[in-house]
Amino acid sequence: MLFGPLAMSVLGGLVLLFQALLLAHGGLTTLGANAFSMAIAGPFAAYWIYHLTMRLTGKQKIAIFLAAALGDLLTYIITSVQLALAFPAPVGGFIASFTKFAGIFAITQVPLAISEGLLTVLVWNWLQSYTPQELELLKLIKGEPQHNETV
Asked: Which residue ranges traverse the bilayer (predicted)?
């Protein structure tokens, strides 16, 4: 939300490459799938959710929470689709496999998404308190009116 989904796609891709090469997390064979779900789909969804919520409610903290939480969840829904396409169940095919993967992810990712949404709002509050000028430059908050005082 600070820099938009295009910047996040680049940054997310770099982080995923670093994880694949240096931490053996995911690996190079899954880099494309991980980049799509985590560095493209999630950030774009979060960006759209933020702007839609702002248009509908005008409440920035709710928009930030929903964008972070739902963007996180969408990442794992897309990962479930990818896994179901790669490993369809012998009985039930894609749908059965998707249901299984999404159900497993839901156990861990729903509480994490809620936690990440809350943490993102806390970080936003901190940024608003300590860096309002930078947020104004990014056009994320409106500056306080300047009072011209004569001495």
From this structure: 6-24, 31-50, 62-89, 101-127
